[in-house]
Amino acid sequence: MDRKLIGVDLGGTTIKFAILTDSGEVQQKWSVETNILDEGSHIVPDIVESINHHIKLYNMDKSQFIGIGMGTPGTVDREKGTVVGAYNLNWKTVQNVKADVEAGTGIKFTMDNDANVAGLGERWKGAGENGSDVSFVTLGTGIGGGLIADGQLLHGTAGAAGEIGHVTVEPNGYLCTCGKRGCLEQYASATGVVHVARDMAEEFSGDSELKRQTDDGQDITSKLVFDLAKSGDALAVRVVDKVCYYLGLALGNLANTLNPESIVIGGGVSAAGDYLLKQVDHYFQEFAFTTVRNSTSLKLARLGNDAGVIGAASLALSFN
Amino acid sequence: MDRKLIGVDLGGTTIKFAILTDSGEVQQKWSVETNILDEGSHIVPDIVESINHHIKLYNMDKSQFIGIGMGTPGTVDREKGTVVGAYNLNWKTVQNVKADVEAGTGIKFTMDNDANVAGLGERWKGAGENGSDVSFVTLGTGIGGGLIADGQLLHGTAGAAGEIGHVTVEPNGYLCTCGKRGCLEQYASATGVVHVARDMAEEFSGDSELKRQTDDGQDITSKLVFDLAKSGDALAVRVVDKVCYYLGLALGNLANTLNPESIVIGGGVSAAGDYLLKQVDHYFQEFAFTTVRNSTSLKLARLGNDAGVIGAASLALSFN
């Protein structure tokens, strides 16, 4: 009998699920809304119910499953199977996620941080091409990272390995939500791009649609900045150049430290595609050490929203 | 019968040897000069002869040894057991080190890069206290690094993981021997400290013994700069502050990336001791993300010259 995996990607808005083969092919996908009411106390029961319901729906049996893997926000204690401090889920106290999911489904359960899990997904079935040294950076509202080195996902002593978003790229630069200054996240996340655009618009005096919209008090998005830059808007081009400079610096230094085969760039900002990649690579080449420049390459993520469920499912391979 | 390890630390001037127990206690130490004549062709035979001689001298038997581990300059191919490009040994072509040492001694042999091996030593029996996440940085003529994450030594895809010396700390800064600009090595290695001192002396107008000696054309060393700073020399104090700023920035970002339990600082420059550590830590605190600041600590290396042989010996534990 074929053995299957279940991947769960727990987010503040939706919980995504997938059933995969043990070689990582997605066979079924579904999602439910995340109910964060009552201190997030409905989340784990909803996960259990949704899994049990779908196993029945697809005429499958619990014994077919190697395990369930999940990516979650917050701080994960992998040994205890608990999560704490996932504020977008309203999880303020320690949640016994592993115990509850295993009791409710009768299937083995394991989990990790959401950015780590997305990194595992891109490494396994995406742009990382199943390499043993793959770094993943996701440019969304914030910036997260998942680092696989010598075949292993890195966690660090307090689970903070891969905090690429909080690498300092501009000492005395923008104040970050984390309390320190000049974090990459303040320059190259979706909100960072807008911050850079607003600041540069103030000083810019030439002709620019981006400047007009900014001065006009319109809502500026990272997507708008990249779209305008692609169409040649003088200010937007400069904003993108600055963003790519900081990304190139941070990823160059990440590569000088870990020398991965590839650094995979995902998240909303990476929708700018090759236009972004080419400009980041220009600065990456400037900041990477020769051996690193010749052996580490930058790539765009390929799995989109599926990276989470696929990477989460891969965690459960450890039960095999 | 007790099982022993042999550790070899191959350098451009001396080859250091040690016999250790499998728990890492050094029982015998000796060293020989490195003979780099004839394209370094005497080196491996000298290693073989010295090991065989000492095993006999101590009335030991080959069967007592788990294996020989060695740290070497150059680029190591760990699978093939070869080294290439170790210019300070005059090794320009590929050297079949493993095959030759095993044939000559009858003992299993393994090796790794010298900075990696020193990192393993400090992790095992030094300041790293056998932790599973330890980063080692050596501030010598150049700057090297050895990174242990989740219990494993990191190599990267082309063996360039841990190139902390070539992390860019000052875009458009000093030109490095590697061809790029602003590498940490140009500011915080022994030669880097002198470079910073010379540049700052030019612009300094106050009273300073360091300035007098520099203007006088005397030989300035990193040790002199730190000694004068400790005695309150106004220019030397500023030079040390700048050096520690760059170290704090690079190590803060290393910690934001790997979140090790400890970052161990070794090499000649670290002889400045707590005076150096305290000032680097000041900037480290500024550049490290909160979780990292609370879980990663900076430490001085403890093993001195023994880090290499001890770490090298630990490689041979893989034969156990």
Task: Report on this structure.
Two copies of one chain form a homodimer. The first copy, chain A, has 320 residues and is of the alpha/beta class. Chain A folds into two domains: 4-120 and 306-319, Nucleotidyltransferase, domain 5 (2-Layer Sandwich); 131-300, ATPase, nucleotide binding domain (Nucleotidyltransferase, domain 5). Helix content of chain A is 40%, strand content 21%. The first copy, chain A, has a five-stranded mixed beta sheet. Chain A has a five-stranded mixed beta sheet with strand order 10-9-8-11-12, sandwiched between helices.
Task: Please describe the structure with a list of short key phrases separated by commas or semicolons.
about 325 residues, about 40% helix, Nucleotidyltransferase, domain 5, 2 domains, five-stranded mixed sheet, homodimer, alpha/beta, ROK_glcA (chains A, B)
What's the topology here?
2 copies of one chain form a homodimer.
Chain A: E1 4-10, E2 14-21, E3 26-33, H1 37-40, H2 43-57, E4 65-72, E5 75-77, E6 82-84, H3 97-105, E7 109-113, H4 114-125, E8 134-139, E9 143-149, E10 152-153, H5 185-188, H6 190-203, H7 209-215, H8 222-230, H9 234-258, E11 262-266, H10 273-287, H11 290-293, E12 297-300, H12 306-315
Parallel strand pairs in A: 1-4, 4-7, 8-11, 11-12
Antiparallel strand pairs in A: 1-2, 2-3, 5-6, 8-9, 9-10
InterPro entries (chains A, B): ATPase_NBD, ROK, ROK_cs, ROK_glcA
Protein name (chains A, B): Glucokinase
GO cellular component, one term (chains A, B): cytoplasm
Report the major sheet of chain A.
5 strands, mixed
| Proportion of helical residues of chain A | 40-55%
Please, how many helices of chain A?
12
Number of domains of chain A: 2
Q: Would you tell me which CATH topology of the largest domain in chain A applies?
A: Nucleotidyltransferase, domain 5
Taken from the alpha-carbon principal axes, the silhouette of chain A is globular
